[in-house]
Design brief:
The chain has 328 residues and is of the alpha/beta class. 42% of the residues lie in helices and 18% in strands. The two termini are 37 Å apart.
């Protein structure tokens, strides 16, 4: 049973919705007295959607109200973000804010249909996923240092794949390329799947994406993982070093997902949603299901979450500027 099916089974059965009559016992407030809308800025079936459905099930049990997923994909997450920012700020709309909508897109686009700073009230960070640098097995490098040396010896000769211009994987590789002082050629594909197929087929030499997306191919020997982009080793791959410990101290790139509401939600409702999310994320079964999706918990206060988002936005603005990346 693959991880997507397991996750959807969890959503269906692990946290049944309790009767609305129990709501007062749970919150001691009149909020919420009707279903909540959970906007996901990507199509159904992807990792963002699955994680949101897992969290929605937990929030539904906590509130005693349905939490309805509303998938609004398009334009790298900006369509759903705009819809969420324009929703009535009454606490009944929550949003799967993430690295794409609040950090990467603001760096790429001069004009957005929403304000990534003032348009939302952060609820909390759900978790993060490390990326990894992988290469085709035919590339004569076993470590990050060897790969850098190979690239320096052959500037402009090594191609790397990505799911497209301006995506998090491309920006991650550009951060690595800049920090290492090497010249690589970007080859964009229409999605992570085609990019990985190209890498396994030897059409490109390298790629960066999330660790979970590479696990099966790595274990099958079809690609070679050189390092992960988090500051600590990945629990599923304890023998794979971090890039930071491979001669590039301080290097860190993670994909992350949080929960936000439109700006202007009353403080009482914000407090209830924040408290419910914290309790849900503390559940052992919730932690287990998120881990299946490659999400590692990272507990942050609301203030630290706000600071984290700001730092991520600043970081990707520098990457886009330094690499001269233009959206297509």
């Amino acid at each position: 049973m693959n991880r997507s099916i397991r996750a959807l089974i969890f959503v269906a059965v692990i946290l049944p919705v309790i009767p609305g009559a129990a709501l007062a016992q749970r919150t001691g407030q009149g909020f919420p007295d009707r279903p909540l809308r959970y906007i996901v800025p990507f199509p159904p079936g992807g990792s963002t959607d699955i994680v949101a459905r897992i969290v929605a099930a937990g929030l539904a049990e906590s509130f005693g109200q349905q939490v309805v997923i509303d998938n609004r994909g398009g334009a790298g997450g900006t369509v759903g973000a705009e819809i969420a920012a324009q929703a009535t700020p009454d606490g009944y709309t929550i949003f799967a804010c993430n690295i794409a909508s609040l950090a990467v897109s603001p760096a790429l686009y001069k004009k957005l249909g929403y304000d990534p700073v003032a348009g939302f009230a952060p609820i909390g960070l759900i978790g993060s996923t490390a990326n990894a640098l992988v290469i085709h097995p035919g590339v004569p490098a076993k470590t990050i240092a060897q790969f850098i040396a190979l690239a320096k010896a052959s500037p402009g000769k090594i191609n790397y794949a990505s799911p497209g211009v301006g995506t998090s994987p491309q920006l991650s590789m550009e951060m690595f390329r800049t920090a290492a002082g090497i010249d690589l050629v970007h080859v964009p594909y229409k999605g992570a799947g085609p990019a990985l197929v190209a890498l396994m087929g030897g059409h490109v030499e390298a790629m960066v994406s999330t660790v979970p997306s590479f696990l099966a191919a790595t274990r099958a020997g079809r690609i070679r993982m050189l390092g992960v982009t988090s500051t600590t080793r990945h629990p599923d791959l304890p023998d794979v070093p971090t890039i930071a410990e491979s001669g590039m101290p301080g290097f860190e790139v993670i994909s992350w997902q949080g929960l936000c509401t439109p700006a202007g939600v009353p403080s009482a409702e914000l407090g209830l949603i924040r408290g419910a999310l914290a309790k849900v994320l503390a559940l052992p079964e919730m932690k287990k299901q998120l881990a299946v999706q490659g999400m590692q918990p990272k507990e942050l206060t609301v203030e630290k979450f706000v600071a984290f988002i700001r730092a991520e936005r600043d970081k990707y603005a520098r990457v886009v500027k330094d690499a001269g990346i233009k959206p297509q």
